[in-house]
Design goal:
This protein is an alpha/beta fold and 241 residues long. It is 36% helix and 27% strand. The chain has 2 domains: 158 residues, 3-Layer(aba) Sandwich (Rossmann fold); 64 residues, no CATH class. The chain has 10 helices and 10 strands. Strand 4 and strand 5 form a beta hairpin.
Amino acid sequence: MTELLSLENINTFYGPVQVHFDLSLTVGRGHIVCLLGGNASGKSTTMKIILGLVKPQSGIVRFDGQPATGLPTPQIVRRGVGSVPEARRLFGDMSVRENLLMGAFVRKDQKAIAEDLDRVLGLFPKLAERLAQRAGTLSGGEQQMVAMARALMGRPKLICMDEPTMGLSPLWVDRVLDLIAAINKEGVTVFMVEQNASLALEIAHHAYVLQTGRIVLQGPASQLRADPRIRDAYLGGQEAA
């Protein structure tokens, strides 16, 4: 396995509260890796560190072989990291098309951007029917599709997804998971933070379980799916995230 992303001995604090304790994990190129954990386990902070939104007190983040600790978010995006944030965070008053093009804000190659828009709409055909519609009027599942397609418009090597199934109906949950698997088959590495372990482990290659800022379980997703400890582990944790 070739590493695309690694976090090495990360320690993070919010004021006096320590959130991560020597957190280390790796994301293999071409894989889907999920980070599981209950509320306030430190999952979302892990995502913010990767995206440059939070700087750890100590430890190293490496992306594609280069140090990335503490870099500003736009620079991390330019290196090839896309984001599907929790609660999607679309521009509700802008059209679907405008939201998708915002995903290419760091690019200047207009012809290639147009080609990528066509490619993304091929992967998300429902959005092709909604291009002129205001994003804020879409259903939750459709908005999640926009967020995922927007991330792809940056031509990322890695997409970080924060709770991609949160708040969706069961039908949309299955659809979103299928789309994540489809994105991965296109060659994009996926790192997803997820609270629903059983669903995430269905599509992931590898998984980590985070409890109060510490990795307590890790391994191939197929093995963790059968591990009786995983339910207690990923539901544990009361510290601030």
